[in-house]
Amino acid sequence: MTKVPRIRVDFESRSICDIRLGADVYARHWSTAPLMLSIEVPGVLEYVEDFMLGTPGYQKSCYPFSAPGDLTFRFIKPKCPPIILQAIAEGWVFVAHNARFEQAIWYHICHLLWGWPMPAKWSCTAARSRYWGLRASLDGSASDLEVLHQKNADGKDFINNFCKPRKYKGAKKLGVIKELWWEPQDNIEAWTKGVEYCLDDAKAEGDIDDILPDLPPFEQVIWDLDFKINTRGLPVDLKAVERALQFSEHFTQVNFKKFDDITALRPTQRDKVLEYINQREEIENLGDLRSKTLKRIVVSELPDDLRDVIAIRLETSNASIKKLDTMMKCTDSDGRARGLFLYGGAHTMRWSAKRIQPQNFKRPDPNTPQDYMFSYLDDDSIWMRAMQGHNGGPPIDELPG
């Protein structure tokens, strides 16, 4: 089948936002700035559009208030290359590897901030790799197909030096940055190598695009639908999540103190907790502390203190509690979490989930009244009752569902 005219694109960008929170959160963040864009029209041209050195004033405008009274933040907008305008006007297919990232950067920055038109047709070589049974990463797909141009291994140095904060003060999760990235002028030789890396990746993507057939029409429709689903996102009640986090922190402190009183340990000290349990004469040779292992224990036959140890260990390892912090971080300012599903993430080509794993959400208890279940975090009386353990049992028992 003859492929329609196409143009291959690949962004390199920088941000203090963690890309693992999702392309949309990353692209919408105030610090995110495209550095360069590789453009290739097969058999016609290939080059890198260097925004930092090629657009006067753009580099400075990436910083808010870089000087007293400076109001140029994000006001300097690179012009859309003529070949891009031609490709969009003539309905060419835009090809990228992991095209969701390029789509997010294009929409939130190039389109909304810079005024570039939006491409209507996209093709993702990573999605095509999954469909045809190959590894989806650029280096994996290029290696599987044994293409001429492989992923440039030197790109990691460019990413670490120019694309994300280089040094943090204390733990990275605290987000306290001690040193940002290099600017091109700080190491022009390394920047030049970065431009070469961007072009090398584009060549590898081009080789993959040349070999792999496009998705069948019906599958391309599904991929386009996947884009709409991920762009629309899932609504998240941030107020409820914040209240749930407060409750989780309170209950965790209560549990940790109780656990320490019994064992002089923390529930997260896996090896020492396992050793403590195995030293108790009520249990023999417990192999591990996985949830399914602990749930097999007949706790009704155990003394109260050991029963509490097992219960607290199970509760503190609950994956659904750990998702709360991720929900807060990966939800956009409009209250929607986007990019949560991965097309063809499983070998059977079914979707897989990312970050908060919505496919694994627990089903609500059908016996719990819906108005109570969805309003308890907004009702201070229910909230206080839950925090204090109104019925005499653990506070967590007050929560519905």
Q: Major sheet: size, sense and barrel closure?
A: 5 strands, mixed
> Which fold name corresponds to the CATH topology of the largest domain?
Nucleotidyltransferase, domain 5
Q: Taking Cα atoms only, what radius of gyration do you get, to the nearest Å?
A: 26 Å
**Please, what is the oligomeric state?**
single chain
Give the N-terminus to C-terminus distance in angstroms: 53 Å
Report on the architecture of this protein:
By secondary structure, the chain is α+β, with helices and mostly antiparallel strands. The protein folds into three domains: 6-234, 2-Layer Sandwich (Nucleotidyltransferase, domain 5), CATH 3.30.420; 237-330; 363-401, no CATH class. It has 17 helices and eleven strands. The protein has helices at 23-28, 51-54, 58-61, 82-89, 99-111, 125-131, 138-145, 155-163, 188-211, 217-232, 238-263, 270-279, 291-295, 304-316, 319-330, 370-373, 380-388, and strands spanning 6-14, 33-41, 45-50, 93-96, 121-124, 167-168, 177-179, 234-235, 336-337, 341-342, 352-353. The longest helix has 26 residues, at 238-263. The model is unreliable at 371-376, 381-385 and 387-401 (pLDDT under 50).
Features:
401 residues; alpha+beta; Nucleotidyltransferase, domain 5; two-stranded antiparallel sheet; disordered C terminus
What's the short story on this structure?
The chain is an alpha+beta fold.
List the helices and strands and how they pair.
Blueprint: E1 6-14, H1 23-28, E2 33-41, E3 45-50, H2 51-54, H3 58-61, H4 82-89, E4 93-96, H5 99-111, E5 121-124, H6 125-131, H7 138-145, H8 155-163, E6 167-168, E7 177-179, H9 188-211, H10 217-232, E8 234-235, H11 238-263, H12 270-279, H13 291-295, H14 304-316, H15 319-330, E9 336-337, E10 341-342, E11 352-353, H16 370-373, H17 380-388
Parallel strand pairs: 1-4, 4-5
Antiparallel strand pairs: 1-2, 2-3, 6-7, 8-9, 10-11
